[in-house]
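note to self: the first set is below, dont mix up w the second
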Amino acid sequence: MDKRFWLVLSAVIIGLVAIFMLGGGKANDAAADFSGDASQVQDDDHIVNPQASRDVVLIEYGDFECLGCGALYPVLKQVESEFAGQVTFIFRHFPLTSIHRNAFAAHRAAEAAARQGQFFAMHDLLYENQETWNGPSSADPGGVSIETATTIFEQFAQQINLDLERFKTDFASEDVASAINKFVDSGQQLNLSSTPSLLLNGQPIQTPGSVEQLRQVLQEAVDAASPLNEQ
């Protein structure tokens, strides 16, 4: 990891935790009834590696505009590669609309991309280019406007070869908004109030401060789930 990553992550952990303790929010009244057990894998979950073992499941509730989520992104990418067959990795929408003006639109972009089988391609672009569509700080009143951000999302859609007209239609649709709100409702069922929020096998865990920390947590879960440890 480079020095910039550690500086950003330290700032997130030390200085921004209080900001993120606001809970996810819906941007409109689109239907979003959630029923079931949110701690378990859902049929409509966005799963990084669907063929992986379900013995160990890591769920992230994230906000694309959240700086903490942006700092965690490369950590998760690293362990997703290392534990590709052993751990199921899931991302769920949890935009903090009360403090992140472009968050719901960003989640619309990812969910619209999902309609064309490209959720994680858009997910990655949103995090890797967070400052481009968000600005240097989400608290900056002079940051990127929603109109400019939407144009950038459309450019991302073209970059990953989506049907642009279909993307625009889905982006603006109530169906996409409802899908996002359903994930928000599932997080609220779990009493989540911050991003990133991680659940390992249905139980909340502390956001790791490094790849090494998360690697250790996952390895312990994998070892515990091994048949060799069953009595």
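second set (the one i keep forgetting abt)
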Amino acid sequence: MATTDATDTTDAPQETQQETQQETQDAPVQVSAGAAGVYCKRQVGLIGILLIVSGVVSLANLATGDINLMARGVVNCIVYCLMGLGMLWFQVEDKGDHLLVTSGPCRWMMCGWGKEKVKYSEIRDYETTKTCLFAEPGLPCTGIRLMNQCSCCQCGFCAPSASYLSGGCCGQTTVRLSINERTFGTDAHDPERDCCLEGCCLRNCFGAKCSQPCLGGICGEGCLFSMCLNPCGVNCMTMNTMFISTNDPQGLIALLNNKCNKEVTI
């Protein structure tokens, strides 16, 4: 009898330990919001391509022989092509405690508008939407941050992986984020990665700078001109809604579900 009791006593912890190990293996793995994940998706859009094409077409003025038209054509070509390269694609990347959305490849041409950080703790709500609004990144005085454009077939040289068949032309999905109201580009400046032009813009034209005094007024309210042009005291550099276009809506929503501890389905 004593032997049986001893055997039962010895076996019990082993069975409990095996059950605990099995439960640990079966449990879903939760990604910590403080650790950077591996999510990084890039969507090539038509806006940048159309700008580049418009710039090349403007070179037709060279055939006119008119010096003024020729000079205007060259200037337009340079400006349009650089703007197109500044927003040829939008990239969404998980950075641990925040979502980093950038444009490229020549992001410095956007003078700070091509980069936005959104902390997961600031996101109040998110969903896919059927709304459609394509423009340059950001619409001042509306509270809307646009990183949204119509999708195009992306080749291997302008995206991590080619997608000629999946997510091709106009195959994008727009994800709307509702966030705590703050200014554009808050904490977006990264002195180690931003170029001089973009860094200067992010430091002096975005973030906390927009709420600081400037020439007799608040910078984001129009400085001293706010007295006559902005009597309501609207800070035109605030945002509370962000639209992000993506060819990977399932992956992005799954990332947001994980980071924001919610369960949104497409």
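remember for set 2: The chain has a mean pLDDT of 83.
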